[in-house]
Structure formats: C-alpha cells, structure tokens
Amino acid sequence: MLPTFPDLRPLNWSDRREIEELTRDFAPYSEFNTVNMWCWHRKYRALCRFNDHLVQVITDAATGEMALSLLGKGDNARTLAALLAASRGLGCGQCLRLVPEEALPSDASPGSGFVLYPEEQDSDYVLSISEWVTLPGSAYQPIRNQINAFRRRYQGEFLRLDLNNSTTQAAMEDLFWRWARQKEATALPATWHELTAIRRLFLVAPEAQVFAFGLRVDDRLIGFLICECRSPGWAIAHYWKGDRTFRGVYCALLHHACQWLQAEGCAALNIGQDLGLPGLAAAKRSFQPRRQLRKYAVAAAS
User: 13-121+296-300 maps to which CATH number?
Assistant: First the structure.
C-alpha cells in the first residue's frame, strides 16, 4: 500500500492498482499515469496518498526543483491547503505544481485562499479519435494529403508490435536513433533520458497493457506509436517516433492506430505536452487537437 502523507517513497510497479483506483475517474493526465510515472522515474520521485488523493513529488527537469502535486476525489480545498502548509518542510517550495484542473476547488481564487498560475506548456493535447478515423472537412485536408502521399509513394504495412520480442525492441531502438540523428539530437541528455524511459517500458510491457503499432516499408520499421487504453473512453500516447525521410509517416501511423483504438472503445487520445518548445507546439497543433488537459501552479493567497 502507498504510505500516508507526509510519508513518501519511490514508486513501485506494484502500486499501479492503487494509483489507478485513485485516478480512474479523471482524464488521463500525463503526470498521474502509472506507466508514464514508471518510465520517467527521475521526474516522479516519490508518492503517497492523502485520503482519496494521490500525492507525488515532481522534479522540474530544467531546474531540479521539487514540488508537490495531487489528483483525487474528496475535499480538494482542504487537501491543497494541507499540502501547501507542509510543502516547504518537505523541500518542495511554496507552490504546488502541475495540479490538474480537475483537482482544483470549485472556487479557486485569492478570496478562497489560493492563487492559480496556468502552466500552459504542460497542458496535454487531446485528439478526437473518431475524427482521426474519418478525417472530416477542410481542417483535415493537410492531413489527408500527407496520408495519401504516403500511400502513393510507399508500400507501407501497418502492424501490431510485440514489445516483449527482443528483435522488435532492437528495431524500435534502431528507429529511435534514426529519428535522433535526423533531429541532430543524439548527444542531448533529453534523448538519452527518453531512450531510458522506453527501455523501462520494455521491462514491464507484459503487465502494462500497452499497445504498440508500427509502420514497415521493405521489412524496415519506419514508425512506432505506443498507446494505452484508459477507461472510460480514453487512450494516452506514450512514445511516437517516425523516420522523417518518409513523408506522411506520422499521420499515416496515427490514422491506422486510431482505427484500432476506436474499435477498442476509445474516443479521445492524449498526445502529451509541448514543453514550451515552439517546434513541438506547432507539431501538436497540426494534429487538430480538440481540447487540452490544463494544469496549474497553486500558491497560498497572501
């Protein structure tokens, strides 16, 4: 069982069931998804529970600063106040960070004792799966063009990938490094951290219940997308890589994957944050998101 606040400890994979019991009634925010927390273990340092809330320590990759965050049911205002009162003593600063919109009190204003600061760069982009299956209207015309161009130029094969297979894992790592070279990012710490996260996912793939999709041309993997179905009606994308020498690879892969996700009962797909990177933000917006899962820094009103 998870310890009770203010006791905290690192995540164990065996905590997954309890975490999902605490968070299953909410949209799948990246910071409170067990698979994501497990893979990015340096960011999600420790966790516990406060009544019916999941509480965790999140580390800012840029500054190394730690902050508390939470998601759960019950009296949000009381839980926020308790965490803010204890935060500095735990070495987590004066603000809570990356607090999902659904974890805020119904009246979160200076008059209620809280001050909110939107954290736009960490908002999760959400796609409509049904729209990505049908690709309707003028907004999807550029996407249809990319998919059609891919079909004309390449004999691509869409397939499910077995994450337990060592040959498949090697092919995915080979594609990962092709992608990194194309972005001139092979030496960046963020690239190595992401590869470590993918390898950690391989370790728990049988229990994680994730689904990996691939595109192959001439027996070579040119794209992969790893997703997880979350009830009710949600899916979350964990890792998505493509060989950019194949025009339209990302759109073609996502279109096929969404057909499968829709058949599994999923209606919305969380594709994660843009981290404040202009190029990544432009790419995420090009996929026609229909909403964002917003998060906030929360401080006590002075």
Answer: 3.40.630.30
Asked if residue 139 lies in contact with residue 288, where contact means CB atoms within 8 angstroms, the answer is yes
Q: Are 154 and 217 in contact (CB under 8 A)?
A: yes
Per the prediction, the chain carries an average pLDDT of: 94
**32/68 Cα distance (integer angstroms):** 12
Beta bridge partners of 292: 125
Enter the pTM of the model. Answer: 0.94
**Nearby residues of 72 by Cβ (< 8 Å), 6 or more positions away:** 22, 23, 49, 50, 51, 52, 53, 54, 79, 103
Tokens representing residue 192 in the block: 């190595």
- Per residue in 27-39, pLDDT tens? 999 999 999 999 9
Domain 124-272 grouped into CATH 3.40.630.30: yes
Strand 291-293's sheet: what is its strand order?
157-161, 210-217, 220-230, 234-242, 268-270, 124-128, 291-293
CA separation for the pair 257, 116 (Å, rounded): 37
pLDDT digit string, tens, across residues 51-77: 899 999 999 988 899 999 999 998 899
H helix runs in the chain, sequence order: 16-23, 34-39, 76-87, 129-134, 141-153, 166-182, 189-208, 249-263, 278-286
